[in-house]
Design goal:
about 475 residues, about 80% helix, globular
Length: about 475
């Protein structure tokens, strides 16, 4: 068979070009003492530079820095969008956002709607966290702290507001408690474990951790008191009277918790800021460099970060609406209790971005930041989000209270107790991380078999029986 002359000539030119390049690399290694790998990398870099020229103007500037407005704006938008979308590995799940909304809008299979919107909220939580961090860079420490307090747990807040509007108070309570347990056990446990595998022993600011854990203990007491009070009242009062008393206690307790959180912010950012500023001192000499990392993170301008927050918040609200509406169907079809959905599944969605961030910084031996993400987020839920939802339910006419089930309250108390023990010495290792993860799995299994029918009435009967004995 006769070969095409054009193909023969192309093959010959390719061989001649390749032979010349190979000989050039050999001459470089023999005369200049350069290693073969270094020489190959040098030639690869030459060709890689040609590829980069397509994103630069004739002066060698990136297109997003071009003087021409009609070139700079589209290039800047594309560059910023790419940097934002690639800020977290979980963002590839963004494909489920339009799919989940489309299935929800067309009233498709409710189980499919739940799964799709469940997956869609994970990357939205990541983008919400990223935009908040970018906005905090420009606003400074004080306003940045307020922004993180407001948007750090925005996913849980939005989902809970939607559920509260629909009267799903058990979902709201379970979601709040589950978010706290997820942060102080699963997220913190993964930080200790991942960091302990890479580093034999890690250290963090025990004073800051102790302050946070003390506030968590106070929040634990705020849940134990209403639950035990309801049980202690027993059958001496009617159900409506007991509920009315619990609501009065919950409303007053919520106001006090909000005041305590405001005092904590003032303590952290003003009067005792030096205690928290010590966190960044050991990291300043790290291999990455705090300034370089901060500059690398700064991708969005304040207006762009604000627009991103609005868009992502709207998307989360829409996905949360379809997610909550499909809970009844998933409970019936999958035979999963509402308590398990609210306490285990929904917090995993809301804490996905924080989980990834905390584990990454823990492997970089920045344990103060990891502790701040895990325990700080739990503290925001306990002292800010949960009391706010109680007050919001009061305004909306919903009987949202701090009266959790006895079993849930005991689990919360034990989780906070174990966490306080492990962080009290200011050191961590992979074994402590395995303990926290193991305890979270045990709690998840317990709530998987925990029936929704177990109400405070049953707890009241148990309390009365124990009192008689």
């Amino acid at each position: 068979m006769t070969e095409n002359p054009a193909a023969t000539k192309m093959r010959a030119n390719f061989r001649r070009h390749a032979s010349g390049k190979i000989q050039q690399i050999r001459n470089t290694t023999e005369n200049g003492g350069e290693s073969l790998a270094a020489a190959v990398n040098h030639h690869v870099d030459e060709h890689s530079a040609l590829l980069n020229r397509t994103f630069q103007n004739s002066d060698g500037q990136p297109l997003y820095a071009d003087d021409r407005t009609w070139v700079r704006w589209p290039a800047s938008f594309g560059y910023t969008s790419w940097q934002t979308l690639t800020s977290n590995p979980v963002n590839f799940l963004l494909v489920f956002v339009p799919v989940g909304i489309a299935f929800g809008a067309t009233h498709g299979n409710q189980t499919v709607v739940f799964v799709l919107n469940f997956l869609a909220i994970i990357p939205l939580a990541s983008l919400l966290s990223f935009a908040t961090e970018e906005l905090s860079v420009e606003l400074g420490q004080t306003l940045g702290g307020l922004m993180n307090a407001t948007f750090g747990n925005a996913v849980e807040l939005i989902v809970s507001i939607v559920a509260l509007k629909n009267g799903e108070i058990r979902i709201v309570q379970a979601s709040m408690l589950g978010s706290i347990l997820s942060n102080i056990l699963l997220v913190l446990g993964c930080c200790f474990f991942a960091g302990g595998i890479k580093h034999k022993e890690q250290h963090f600011n025990s004073t800051v951790a102790s302050t946070m854990s003390s506030l968590m203990a106070v929040s634990t007491a705020s849940l134990i008191i209403p639950a035990t009070l309801y049980a202690a009242m027993g059958s001496s009062k009617t159900h409506d009277k007991k509920t009315h008393n619990i609501l009065i206690l919950s409303h007053g307790t919520s106001i006090i918790l909000l005041i305590l959180y405001a005092l904590y912010l003032f303590f952290q950012l003003k009067t005792h800021a030096h205690l928290f500023d010590e966190e960044s001192e050991p990291e300043a000499d790290g291999e990455d460099g705090a300034d370089g990392e901060q500059a690398e993170r700064h991708v969005l301008s304040p207006p762009a970060a604000g627009v991103a927050l609005v868009i992502v918040t709207i998307a989360v609200a829409v996905c949360a609406e379809y997610l909550v509406d499909s809970i009844d169907s998933i409970v019936e079809s999958a035979h999963i209790s509402r308590t398990f959905i609210g306490l285990i599944l929904l917090p995993i969605v809301g804490n996905a971005a924080e989980h990834v961030t905390a584990v990454v910084v823990a492997t970089k031996n920045k344990m103060d930041l990891a502790i701040g993400v895990a325990i700080g987020s739990s503290m925001q839920i306990a002292l800010l989000v949960t009391p706010f939802l109680v007050i919001l339910g009061w305004i909306m006419g919903e009987k949202m209270s701090l009266q959790f089930e006895i079993f849930e309250t005991v689990v919360f108390f034990l989780a906070v107790l174990v966490t306080n023990y492990l962080i009290s010495d200011g050191k961590s290792n992979y074994l402590e991380g395995a303990m926290l993860i193991g305890m979270y799995i045990i709690i998840a299994l317990a709530f998987y078999v925990y029936p929704d029918e177990n109400t405070a009435e049953g707890a009241s009967t148990l309390w009365s029986t124990m009192s008689q004995r």
